[in-house]
Structure prediction request, 260 residues.
Amino acid sequence: MNRRKVTTIQQETGTMTDKREESPSYKRVLLKVSGEALMGKGSGGVDPEMVDMVAADIAAVVASGVQVCLVVGGGNIFRGLSAAARGMDRAQGDYAGMLATIINALMLQNGLERQGLETRVMTAIQMAAIAEPYIRRRAVRHMEKGRVVIFAAGTGNPFFTTDTAAALRANEMECDALFKGTQVDGIYSDDPRRNPDAVRYDQLTYMDVLARQLNVMDAAAISLARENKLPIVVFNMHAPGAFATVVRGEGRFTRVIEAG
Prediction:
């Protein structure tokens, strides 16, 4: 049974706003964690303090009764698209990037288990010594038992981003929403770190994101979410407790949903 809520929107003066419920109710959500988020304030690699902060935030959400699964990126270690721009074969570069996501998944697993959570890492590329192969029914069963499932290696296919993997896994798990943690507190008309005049949106439709080319997720991910009416919530995950706050419907974030 599909658990997703139906929400309403209204449009005012060219920007999208929403009629939020006082206490959003989620049973199961997917959190997309970018590789860059795990860098913390560094220029690459993994910051153990950032991993611990993300793990503590996820633990708080799980403690509230929400089932959580994750898709993790690998851009802090290797980016296949960037390597392709420098002459590397694109498919080979993407496979290398998938391996980077597995490193990040293992780091997150360690952080979550230090929080006392039971976890499973499942990969789209078989790597039996360190993780389970991705099997949808098994993943659902893990979540029903209260385990945090970390999906690594993207979709297992080159030319698809981990954003697309996040939309795919969220739909397969019948999640109520896809939460994407970024470095800013929502979706803006431009990068607010470079353009102080960038406009922040409280709510958008999928078509708004595609038509305005708001590069919060790639077009394939947005289209997949739109086809299955999967809400996307974009927020800044660099503050302690940010994920738990947004799951409660509080704080600053942008929600992407179907037009009302």
